[in-house]
């Protein structure tokens, strides 16, 4: 195993999990949100500094779409598609 320096200033993990019962962040827009935010970061030329990552379950299933920003470890719940600008601001500040 080798430890490497993280090449990104920040990373945001957005839950895109889809459960067998039809629930999960992925079924209520998590994947769309992740795709749109990733596109926004790239369009602004910031994809070398900030990474938008699809994650599995983050265990906040009853609290809507969940995102975690690292290195702060800030957890955001009840995220929806209308929050994309706020997520972008949280990621890039």
Written overview of the protein:
This protein is an alpha+beta fold and 93 residues long. It contains two helices and four strands. It has helices spanning 30-43, 84-92, and strands at residues 10-15, 50-55, 65-70, 74-79. Helix 1 (30-43) links the parallel strand 1 (10-15) and strand 2. It is globular and about 40 Å long. The model has no long low-confidence stretch (mean pLDDT 95).
In short:
The protein is of the alpha+beta class. The chain has one domain: Glutaredoxin, CATH 3.40.30.10. It is built from 2 helices and 4 strands; from the N terminus they run E-H-E-E-E-H.
Computed CA radius of gyration, to the nearest angstrom: 13 Å
CATH topological fold name? Glutaredoxin
Helix content: 10-25%
Query: What is the residue-mean pLDDT, rounded to a whole number?
Result: 95
CATH superfamily: Glutaredoxin
Spans of at least 5 consecutive residues with low confidence: none
Topology summary:
Layout: E1 10-15, H1 30-43, E2 50-55, E3 65-70, E4 74-79, H2 84-92
Give the tags.
single chain, 93 residues, alpha+beta, Glutaredoxin, four-stranded mixed β-sheet, 2 helices, globular
């Amino acid at each position: 195993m080798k430890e490497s320096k993280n090449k990104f200033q920040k990373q945001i993990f957005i839950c895109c999990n889809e459960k067998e019962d039809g629930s999960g962040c992925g079924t209520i827009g998590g994947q769309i949100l992740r795709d749109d935010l990733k596109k926004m970061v790239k369009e602004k030329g910031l994809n070398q500094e900030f990474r938008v990552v699809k994650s599995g379950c983050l265990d906040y299933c009853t609290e809507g779409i969940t995102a975690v920003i690292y290195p702060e470890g800030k957890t955001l719940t009840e995220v929806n598609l209308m929050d994309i600008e706020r997520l972008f601001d949280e990621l890039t500040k």
